[in-house]
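Backbones bend. Shown next:

***
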Amino acid sequence: MRFSKRLFDILVSLPAVILLLPLFLVVLISVVLSKGPVVFKQERAGKGAKPFTFYKFRTMRTDVDPFGPSPKSGDDPRLTKIGKFLREYSLDELPQLFNVLKGDMSIVGPRPLYMEQIKEWDDRQKKRLLVKPGITGLAQISGRGTLTREEKLELDVKYVENAGFLFDLRIIFITIFQVFRRKSIYEKRYSLTEETRGQNQS
């Protein structure tokens, strides 16, 4: 299973990078015009709690706290104009294809969270660390922004307990459908002041 999943990740991510290269260039130029770093980098928890550098296209202004709560509304003033567009179509996640090629992430798996969050999880929630984090996962197709942190963690564990090739394919196809629908991008339950640092940029 481990070898086949890694092979699947490479067979999906490598052609995707090649085919999406023109889109990468367009996004890169657009982010450059917003003045600031093109790629947003942070340390996240990988499989077995091993830290790795996580990549995204930058969507927020450079004069805001990069560790603050992630924008929960398309009207959040911290988002750049291009950043709002990138988030609505999940284009800011594209650099994570390189995380997959490096072996830090998989196409499908729990979203990578902060190292410091691990101490907040119970033994069941820590089961999400048994697999590589993913670009998309069960939580992302089950409500994404409308879920609480606890609900997301529970769905992550359910993914680990039911992981398999057909399950991954189902998640990928539903993800593609939801991206075009721009469904559940922003959180609806909480205000920015109620968010924790651990939910930033997830």
